[in-house]
Amino acid sequence: MSTSTKTPPPPPAAVAADAHWSAKMERLRSRPLVQAVFRVCDDPEVRDRYARAVRAEEVARTYAEANPDDKTAAIEAAAEAAKLAEAKQAYEDASVPLTFRALPRPAYESLLKEHKPSEAEADEGQEWDESFPAALIAAASVDGMTQNEAQELLDTWSLAEANAMFNAVFNVQQTTRADLGKG
Fold it and tell me: Where are the domains of the chain?
């Protein structure tokens, strides 16, 4: 029995059909998992300024793109882009970023199996036990958040904030970067 970890050669039929198969497969193997940054900003003024700047920049840019001969629109779009850059920097400075990464499918499925709902919980429509959210947050944390720390935040934050963090982590597990294309 061989214990080699050498990558097997591509099937001859695949090479015949696509001479670049090995390069494609290597590229597919080396793709990083999806990541998302969840930002916690306790300064509502900074948060609102950033949200307003995002909207104002989008409106100005959309108008300028629709009216390419309008020089004033282009100047206003550039000014709004500069205001957005400043507001974004202030928002990032006032925020605590938490970075979460999608788990490889087997790890995610294992976590789900470890946190199956009890029979009573399943009868109530729950998909996992009460410790799953903290376990998923810890497993997906790039920053090294432990399950106990995740549970502490889930228990001490408001329901909306706790749900927002869990949803950010759960959604990164559901993110796809593939499509069937057209044609």
Answer: 41-99, 102-176
